[in-house]
Design goal:
With about 140 residues, the chain is mostly helical. It contains 4 helices and no strands. Helix 1 runs antiparallel to helix 2, helix 2 packs across helix 3 and helix 2 runs antiparallel to helix 4. Keywords: Membrane, Transmembrane, Transmembrane helix.
Length: about 140
């Protein structure tokens, strides 16, 4: 891939990952609202723990889905030979850990960096979401 193609395709996959994350976080917010209404009269433990647990389940699902999306790119693009290598490389890159035991060729380095940027931004967005959820949960509990 040329540099321009790497930037274009990397941006496309990054955009797809963020559309998925926004959809899932919006859905998570709706689930938490419905669940909070049902648990209004429940014990404090449930009203605090349930939104946090639901958020974590959604976030882990979102990140797992994104790692799989990048693994699909590596396998279907004949970049990596098998699913094991593709998932491993995808996870290590997405988490920005980058062991370096699997390295892309020069023609895909910039494209591969987009997987890392996707993970970095996804973790940031997920962290901000969790802070917002926990702030709301504790604000409601302190005012009750």
């Amino acid at each position: 891939m040329t540099l321009t193609e790497q930037i274009v395709w990397g941006s496309i996959y990054l955009g797809i990952c963020f559309i998925i994350e926004i959809i899932f976080l919006t859905w998570c917010t709706q689930v938490i609202r419905v669940m909070s209404l049902r648990l209004e009269q429940s014990k404090k433990f449930l009203t605090i723990a349930a939104p946090i647990c639901i958020s974590l389940v959604f976030i882990v699902t979102i990140h797992t889905f994104q790692v799989w999306l990048w693994a699909i790119v590596w396998v279907l693009g004949d970049v990596l030979p098998d699913w094991n290598s593709a998932l491993y490389f995808s996870l290590v890159t997405f988490t920005t850990l980058g062991y370096g035991d699997i390295v892309l060729g020069e023609q895909l380095r910039i494209f591969g960096a987009f997987a890392s940027v996707t993970g970095l931004l996804s973790f940031g967005l997920s962290t901000a979401f969790m802070v917002a959820v926990m702030t709301e949960v504790f604000k409601e509990e302190l005012s009750a």
